[in-house]
Amino acid sequence: MGRNYAEHARELGNDPDREPPFFFAKPADAVFAVDEGVPARGVAPHTVPYPPETDNLHYEMELVVAIGVGGADIAPADALTHVFGYGAGVDLTRRDLQDAAKVLRRPWDLSKGFDFSGPCTPIVSASAVGHPSAARIWLDVDGERRQDGDLVDQIWPVQGVIAALSRFVTLRPGDLIFTGTPAGVGRIEPGNEITAGIDGIGDLAFSLVSAG
Questions:
Q1: In this prediction, what percent of the chain has a pLDDT beyond 90?
Q2: Which residues on adjacent β-strands are paired with residue 176?
Q3: Neighbours of 191 (CB within 10 A)
Q4: Pairing outcome for strands 193-198 and 93-94
Q5: I want to staple 5 with a disulfide (CB 3.0 to 4.6 A). Which of 96, 156, 182, 206 is the partner?
Q6: What is the pLDDT at residue 181?
Q7: Buried b / exposed e across 139-174, counting CB within 10 Å, b at 16+?
Q8: Which of 142, 45, 58 is nearest to 97 (CA)?
Q9: What's the distance, Cα to Cα, between the start and end of the chain in Å?
Q10: Burial 22-56 (b: 16+ CB within 10 A, else e)
Q11: Could you tell me what percentage of the chain is helix, strand and coil, using 3-state DSSP and rounding each to the nearest 5?
């Protein structure tokens, strides 16, 4: 989901009070457990390859919702019964490609949906952690705090996100919804060390490495 925290919307030059919920998609294999890596594709645990065709890669730390029970046109009051659990993930974005796509009024697909663009923690069940509506969400680059927000600041909470998305597509068990990022997004480069987490959900850490 895009622009789900008011301050992040403003830092990108948008008005959070005038936009309905909107969504973009990543391919399923873009999301992976960063502490396990993808050995079959040469990605070691706790590493993320720097993607091709960009000179401006950005991080966006997000709460990840794992759907356990599918459905369409889900009412907000019923939405949490469709959640299996939660994780913490980073939506990596080729910002230069995204900015060019916006100018040309083209899709964002290749700016958001590329290999290894969704490093994520393990999913923890809602039965174990409940349904977090307020929790610190943060991200550091080389030990420097870059994002420091709270889930309570989401414009659309999890119930609203699920209800809105399910009006457009039928949700299926195993679907993962990244629910937006707080303010403080920025550029990262090969050699940077990223640590991040959501209190009560999980932490992740990875090195950004040059491909090949």
A1: 86
A2: 66
A3: 11
A4: unpaired
A5: 182
A6: 93
A7: bbbeeeebbebbbebbbbbbbbbbbbbbeeeebeee
A8: 58
A9: 31
A10: eebebeeebbbbbbebbeeeebeebbbbbbeebee
A11: 25, 35, 45
pLDDT at 211 (0 to 100): 76
Q: Is the pTM of this model over 0.90?
A: yes
Residues belonging to the chain: 212
pLDDT at 12: 52
Alpha-carbon distance of 30 to 145, in angstroms, equals 25
Which of 95, 98, 120 minimizes the C-alpha distance to 109? Answer: 98
Q: Which two tokens stand for residue 203?
A: 């932490």
Q: Does residue 103 contact residue 114 with C-beta atoms inside 8 Å?
A: no
pLDDT value for 61: 97
Report the pLDDT value the prediction gives residue 210, as an integer from 0 to 100: 94
Helix ranges (DSSP H) in 156-200: 158-166
DSSP state, 50?
Answer: P
Q: Write out residues in the chain with pLDDT < 70, as ranges.
A: 7-18, 212
